[in-house]
Amino acid sequence: MEESDGEGRISQTRLKVQDVFAMTDSSTRILTQWNRNNQPVGDSSSLLAGFLGQVASNFGNFPVLYENWSQVPEQYKNNVYLNTIQANFVVNDDKHKQYILRSLGNKWKDKRCRLFDKYHNWELSVEENIQNHPPHIPQDHWAIFVRYKRSAKAMDIANKNAANRAKLVIPHILGYKTLARKRDELETIHGREFSRAEMYQLSHKKPDGTFVNEEARELHEKLQEQMQNCSENEAFMRVCGKEHPGYVRGMGLGVSPSQIVGSSSGATSSTTSIESNERMEQMQAEIESLKAQVAEIDSLKAQVAEVDVLKQHIAFLMQRAKGDETPDLESPINKRSSEGSHMPQGGNSPATI
Fold first, then answer.
1. 33-34 and 247-248 as β-strands: parallel, antiparallel, unpaired?
2. What percent of the chain has pLDDT over 90?
3. Spatial separation of the C-alpha atoms in residues 267 and 235, rounded to whole Å
4. All structural domains of the chain with their residue ranges
5. Which end of the chain is less packed: N or C, by CB atoms within 10 Å?
6. Residue 11: pLDDT band by 50, 70, 90 thresholds?
7. Which DSSP letter does residue 348 get?
8. Phi/psi class of residue 276: alpha, beta or left (left: φ > 0; alpha: ψ in -120 to 50)?
9. Cβ neighbourhood burial of 168 (10 Å; 0-12, 13-18, 19+)
10. CA quadruple 48, 54, 59, 61: dihedral positive or negative?
């Protein structure tokens, strides 16, 4: 691992994640390597990944009370990036920041789910689960989190995610090593670029040369068949379905579909469609975030209105307590009509003479 001090001197050392947190010299930072797709590679990539995992699991950085990563305030993200990530790693490019924040978001989501599974008990009531909050999580944060996770909306999302995970029947053999790092190693050794199809084979074949299962072999054959008539990227779309923003099959985290679509026939329309889908999904995420903010504001307004009513009622009671028989204030809670207050207690009103 390479370190750089404040004077530009570079030294080699072996570090673990905890060693990074223990570094006291603020001028020393770890050098990082990035490939052409702005993904971390080399030995420092695993150290960075482990460090980001620790940062994401500290819910003082990113509280659990937010429904999703897009709702976490940008102030929190920028603060962590500047004072925690950049303070320990040499990462200055905007593209690096995009990758790091996306990785933090994925890790925060996973850590939050594990926390819920560890401390929440479906056999207990909501209030009982709130009382059983993790010691390092504020109870009010945990209460919001628990109520959200038990909502119909959250459970519907969880069921859909579980159904999607059940469809993932093709494991890879890379372990903790990312596709980007494996590709970088291969390209360094062989002196050439490795395609998505090649990376699919390498990451789904066992040491004896056979595929990890029959599904992996069949998918490979379909890709090869489609690639006879179209580009590699188009073949992946036809066989595997559309790509998602921030992750491309055979490329890994941090690569958007628009980065890898080539200039072959039909690629222009594919690029336009993919970029449109990306923009639509980003806009939808922004809309959901705005809706959540509006709902929060409406809730605060309602609470303020309730407080105002209580203040008026307290003022009314205090005036009565002072012995004022003709108070100027009328209780906003137990109002009586002025007409009713002057009517006789019983019988009909006397006739006018």
1. unpaired
2. 52
3. 11
4. 2-121, 179-276
5. C
6. low
7. P
8. alpha
9. exposed
10. negative
DSSP per residue, 6-46: TTS-EEE----HHHHHH---TT-EEE-EE-TTS-EESHHHH
Q: Tokens for 43, please give them.
A: 């030995």
Can you give the pLDDT at residue 308?
Answer: 78
Contacts of 247 (CB under 8 A, 6+ apart): 253, 254, 255
pLDDT tens digits for range 301-333: 777 777 777 888 787 788 777 765 554 545 455
Quote the pTM value. 0.69
Helix (H) or strand (E) holding 187: helix 179-190
Of residues 263 and 233, more confidently modeled: 233
Paired with 247 in beta bridges are: 244, 253
CB proximity list for 89: less than 8 A, separation 6 or greater: 29, 30, 32, 44, 48, 51
* Residue 80 to residue 3: CA distance in whole angstroms: 21
* Cβ-based neighbours of 238, under 8 Å, separated by 6 or more: 226, 230
**Nearest CA to 185 among 210, 202, 197, 205?**
202
Q: How far apart are CA 51 and CA 321, in angstroms?
A: 62
DSSP-derived secondary structure for 195-258:
-HHHHHHHHHB-TTS-BSSHHHHHHHHHHHHHTTTS-HHHHHHHHH---BTTEETTTEET--HH
Beta bridge partners of 33: 41
**88's tokens:** 């320990």
Mean pLDDT of 276-282: 62
CA atoms of 134 and 120, how far apart (whole Å) = 9
The C-alpha atoms of residue 214 and residue 212 are separated, in whole angstroms, by 7
Q: Is 172 in contact with 219 (CB distance < 8 Å)?
A: no
